Amino acid sequence: MATPPTMRNIVSLAAVSVLATGLLLGGGQAAAQDSRLPDIGSSAGEVLGPAQQKQYGEMTLAQLRNYGYTLDDPLLGGWLQSIGDKLGAASDKPRQPFTLFLLRDRQVNAFATLGGYVAVNAGLVLAANREDEVAAVLSHEIAHVTQSHVLRAVERAQRDSVPILLAMLGAIAVAQTSHSSSAGNGAMAVMASAQGLMAQRQINYTRDNESEADRIGIRTLARSGYDPTAMADFFEKLQTIIRSNQGDERERTPDYLQTHPVTLTRISEARQRALQLQKSNAFVPDDKVVDNPLLPASLRIGNALAHGDSGQFPWARERLRVLSADTPAAATREYEKLRRAGSLTDAQRYGLALSRLLDGHAAVAADEFGPLLDAHPGNVWITLGLAQAEARSSRIAAADARFEALLARMPGNRAVALTYAGMLDERNTPIAGKRAQAILRPLLSSAASDPVFQQTFARSSEIAGDPVRAGEAYAEAAYLNGRPEQALVQLNTLKKRGDVDYYARSRIDARIAAITPTVLELRRQGVRDEDLDRR
Length: 535
What we know:
By secondary structure, the protein is mostly helical. The protein contains 27 helices and six strands. α16 packs antiparallel against α17 (about 345-360) and α18 (about 360-375) packs antiparallel against α19. The longest helix has 23 residues, at about 500-525. The radius of gyration is 24 Å and the shape is globular. The two termini are about 25 Å apart.
């Protein structure tokens, strides 16, 4: 974001605001609709360049974080991104980077936006029975990106919706500058009206877009080593959810079906395509043969190079069940209800232990994690949970030994490093802070865009007695969490410190130069950081 925003950037900023507001009003539906406009032609490549597309995706993610909709967990994020990386490498555009992230919402939904950014609701993972089904939805969304469906949608949005988007910005500005309930209600009314207009124009991709995304997505599934029949299986599951739910209309219709209508014909076509792929040996589970688009057509390789299911899905789903619950206690009650219906699986026992750990019962959690690790030696999900439980139940030596062994076994693993550093930070001693800094430093370049990393590194630096590094990281975390104005204020304040050396000052000046244009454009549109305005 080093270049000054253009009118396209203004539209992007407004669109992000529409997205966040739609989530507030509709629980995620507008977010999905934001990327589901009709296909209107073949000039999409002229709308935005790759750098601008990436900028839009970054802004969307930052604003979703700002409004608290994302679920930024290193373990879950690593698992989801690994699926996206696998699918992206096997897609029609293997050089296109994809960034996958989780939303806390338990509605079944997923959507793609510009720059290869793909969001997945917690509810979608919880509804799936296996990783192949999650991968099926992701492959469909990735196909919307690789086939330029999302980019063509933006062309339509820019042509038709600029006045609506700018009006939304005005309404948001009014809401931010006035603290009266009547002004807030008026702004919400304006935003609701604008949302209605946007929804009317963005209701769905065309039928051809959906069919193409299904076809390309199923092929990508097969190339990645996943079961291509999983797409039809998951569509059938969504129809079952609709029939079984007894709530209101919104609860009966998952958001994903509102933007991706599923018919019996579509399910049948998806299953037929998958069977054709299996018969043509593009995907043969028994023989472990898979077609790779990066190799000559005559060459077939074993699935050892193109694995499908990672084996992590059961643990990921239960961790997500806990972290998406309203409270850890609520998650514990969910597991108690599941146990009354039958015995818990090992993955569900892991989820129960995690909920107790997060609810402050570390000793109980440690006693539950222990037998699970005996049954699943080397399991990272369980090992990290046990190490955390030991650390929080005053078994420091055992926890550190477990963490250090994991670090030695998995150097550079973000989840391991961040979890260990987080536990060290809780001790709040200079020695612990310096050890945490040492653990995190190797990730400084690769994890620079991760707000969890920046927040953890900031705290580690702070307690280690390194206030300049701490200040830089806190500012970066604010920026990544959708608070660029707050980040700019922090950097300008940090720059005035007497202990800032030449190298730190150069880094700070570079970030100020990169962030300032965005903050100035937001101010020009009347959008201010309300927390700063209250000071």
